[in-house]
Amino acid sequence: MKKIMKLLLICLSVHLTAQNDAWHISTTNNTDYTGISVANGRIGMLSSSKPLEIQHIVLNDVYDVDPKYKVSQIVHGMNFGNLDLYINDAKISEKNISNWSQTLDLKNAALTTSFNYQNKAEITYTIYALRNIQYSGYIDIDVKATEDIEIKVVGKILTPKTFQKPENTFEIIKDNDITMPILQSKANSPFGKHYISTSSTFIWHNINSTNAKLRPELTHNIVSDYENTLAFTATLKKDKHLIFAWTGAECTSKNFSDPKSESERMIIYNLLTPKESLLNQHKSLWNVLWQGDIIIEGDLQSQQDARLALYHLYAFSRGDSDLSIAPMGLSLQVPYNGHIFWDTELWMFPPLLMLNQDIARSLVNYRFNHLEAAQDRAINYGYKGAMFPWESDDTGEEATPPFALTGPFEHHITADIAIAFWNYYTVTKDKKWLSEQGFPVIEEVANFWVSRVTSNTDGSYSIKNVVGANEYVSNVNDNAFTNGAAITALNYAVKAAKELDVTPNPQWKLISKNIRILKLQDGTTKEHEDYSGEIIKQADVNLLSYPLNIINDKESILRDLKYYEPKLSKHGPAMGKSIFAILYARQGDVENAYRLFKESYVPNKRTPFGALSETTTSNRSYFATGAGGMLQTLLFGFAGLEFTDSGIIQKNPVLPKEWKSLTIKGVGPQNKTFKIE
């Protein structure tokens, strides 16, 4: 295994070239290329190796119908991120450029691409998903002539061909002496659920120095119903720069009563706000996010990996949105349609709660806002309380494709949500939130489990017919993690009630004390009633030690670790081994913790930036769930941090010998710093 890991690290180091510092990941490899997401919590723009292109734009919480399975699917919107550049009538493409490179600036959430065209021009452009103007993107472009050249630039709005009733326009809006050119495309989403409007325009910064007119003449061309373009030309003398921007805003009827006008207003705002002010606002907001940070001294690769993971969790979320995070974030709609799973509460939520309570509040508010739908679902299946869906969309109803048994049977998600809610309260101590939003959810979750358990003749309780965290088996009884999560949720309901001076339902405590946790003959925790040593998809039993703390004596923890680690699928999801790494770190075994930390994500990294794919054999990024698992190893394993009823504490941190120090900044509401040396 050590030889395999060493080979993987060598292969990645070959492709991840020019890794210059802890905030920048650079590459010159545009052949074996997996895109990286530039996102702001509302829109995600997936990068491309092709010059002046992005692959697609993902619209957060905007769902239509998946045409294959007829279930909801997050929308890939109109693509305003592509331009054509002609130099002396020759179109720039990946075939006629040289010295191509890309750099992801993690600190400022910006992706810069540069290349040369023959000996005629040097081109650099930077893509932003503006954090301050959350439905818009901005591409800042610099063309330097190395000899006299003629330039033609074509900005495009590309509408997916699955969209209905596309309409393309161009108009120049005037207010007094200000002219505002607006390219606009409008259409209905594929099955007509939403009306979508995208507006775009050019912004010229230094047009006086290029020997061109103050406002180049614009040419509008509707190439097809699905391609709307706006072009300008300019003459550029040797050693002169043409610096301009292309900006777009995409609004939908999901968020606006008049998306057409709002997309125009956003573009006009970007057009008439000085570039420095606009981008400084964006950078300032990212600077606030990075107050919660992880610093690894002495290992640049691990530092970049950790920052890339944290960057994605920040990029895929917003503290002002009441939205959650899908497993693939804002990078792809496949394979999970942009739905919300336990991935949020169990894997991504804990690092965000530790480092950014503003975003964490949005994640729990998302569930609170869908409480009524969860209550209806419980009734529909013959239960009480609230039964949250395995896959959630903007309706809060079950969105899992009918063929997947996880939809009807993976019930631990309901307990996972209550656990996240209680942890949010223990960190923030926001009793008003607990009273108005936290306890209503925790109480209904507890009532669900009271109605869901089955009593046994010996006074114990079973939870039957479920899919557990190990999804390789279905319809099992007394799954370890499902039972453990239910126990924890019931205990937290008792604590929450007492915190508010409410009398807890006595059944919560009675049932939580008597739900079965099965054992093998040697005392190893048994994954489910019929488990007999099969390969498992991911951690299940071991989740009872972390994060649930139900199995908490060292002998039992190590017994379960040694039994189940060899059972983990070699190709399983990226977060699987993170739990094992955390538990070994908490037992003081830093060597095994570090080994499993690396094994938990390095095989899932994809060139050229190190984006995580869900499994070792797939190539879909970015798997935000894996980022959450890796970050938890750093925070709750090596750094020894822990959520308790009294808030965040530190116990027994350990430091891998490969690192000089580990620093966690911005922890909790007090923004504490913890350094391990």
From TrEMBL:
Residues 36-162 form the Glycoside hydrolase family 65 N-terminal domain. One of its GO terms (molecular function) is hydrolase activity, hydrolyzing O-glycosyl compounds. Residues 307-503, 528-600 form the Glycoside hydrolase family 65 central catalytic domain. Keywords: Hydrolase, Signal. Pfam families: Glyco_hydro_65m, Glyco_hydro_65N. It comes from the Bacteria. GO terms for biological process: carbohydrate metabolic process. Gene3D superfamilies: 1.50.10.10, Glycoside hydrolase, family 65, N-terminal domain (2.70.98.40). Residues 1-18 form the signal peptide. SUPFAM superfamilies: Six-hairpin glycosidases. This is Trehalose/maltose hydrolase-like predicted phosphorylase. It comes from Formosa algae.
